[in-house]
Amino acid sequence: MGKNTFFSLPKEHRPLKNRLNIVLTSNPQLYEVDNIKEHSNVLFTNNNNIHQVILKNRSKYCETYTFLTSDFKIFFIGGKTIYEQYIPLCDTVWVTQIKCDYNCDLFIDYDYLTKFTVEFYKEDDELKIVEYTRI
In total, how many domains does the chain have? Predict the structure, then answer.
């Protein structure tokens, strides 16, 4: 996730539990001395290919982060720049569309149907969740 997404999480839910929280930022050193660093499941980095490094060194990351299992998956959870950069690399994309207006100022305009097919969707009064899988 991007730095802004990380810091937009409510403090009591940050970092997300039982997973390695990888936060992409242009200045990871700014957060090494922050209180966040005390959490053993947060990694601040400016390496845009960190997902490849982790997948190539799966066993090392499982040893370092004991909550990871050998078949762990990598999820990209935002924000906009992260989505734009990594959606083309994904085999599966879960999109949640919130039906209420929250006066948001960032929107993602991506034509999923050119690269993905709809695998599943669920909808209720508040939101719609769609799973897209690569064609």
Answer: 2
Pair (84, 121) in one structural domain: no
Chain centre to alpha carbon of residue 129? 16
Q: Going by C-beta distance under 8 Å and a sequence separation of 6 or more, which residues neighbour residue 105?
A: none
- What does the pLDDT read at residue 102? 87
Identify the pLDDT of residue 23: 95
Whether residue 99 sits in one domain with residue 56: no
Looking at beta carbons, which pairs linking 129-134 to residues 24 or more positions away fall under 8 Å? 129/94, 129/95, 129/96, 129/97, 130/94, 130/95, 130/97, 131/92, 131/93, 131/94, 132/92, 132/93, 132/94, 132/95, 133/91, 133/92, 134/90, 134/91, 134/92
Mean pLDDT calculated for residue range 79-91: 94
Helix (H) or strand (E) holding 5: helix 3-8
99 and 65, same domain (yes or no): no
Distance CA 6, CA 24 (A): 9
